[in-house]
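Input record, target 12 of the design panel.
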């Protein structure tokens, strides 16, 4: 059974949400110990935002980046831009050092993700690469 998510909107009546949580707890195997975690709700990046990043931004950069991005992949761009946007940490292991972005895009809120994509747009413009805005292709197709 996968763990359900119970989202309790701000200023919402608590009774129904608590009743759902209790009904769920009653369904759990009583012979096992269970842990419940409660944390403030943060809306994560949307699937649409993620599709735009991987389906429009990165392909436009790879296509328009020319010789400067020869041999790069979308995954390479993703790691690079995450680190440039959020900062880097150095990890040591096996006698080597490598750099890792401080943040991952999957953990960003919708607003943070929009700021991250804006950062990529600015960097692409500095490279002379144009990235269409969300929905721009659809507007030209009509």
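The sequence produced for target 12 reads:
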């Amino acid at each position: 059974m996968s763990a359900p998510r119970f989202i309790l909107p701000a200023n919402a009546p608590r009774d129904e949400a608590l009743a759902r949580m209790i009904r769920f707890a009653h369904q759990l195997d009583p012979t096992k110990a269970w842990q419940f975690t409660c944390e403030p709700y943060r809306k994560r990046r949307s699937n649409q935002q993620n599709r735009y990043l991987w389906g429009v931004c990165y392909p436009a950069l790879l296509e328009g980046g020319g010789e400067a991005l020869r041999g790069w992949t979308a995954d390479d761009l993703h790691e690079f831009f995450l680190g440039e946007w959020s900062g880097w940490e150095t990890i040591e292991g096996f006698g080597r050092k490598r750099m890792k972005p401080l943040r991952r895009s999957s953990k960003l809120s919708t607003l943070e993700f929009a700021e991250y994509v804006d950062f990529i747009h600015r960097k692409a413009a500095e490279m002379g690469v144009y990235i269409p805005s969300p929905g721009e292709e659809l507007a030209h197709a009509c």
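DSSP finds five helices and two strands in the chain.
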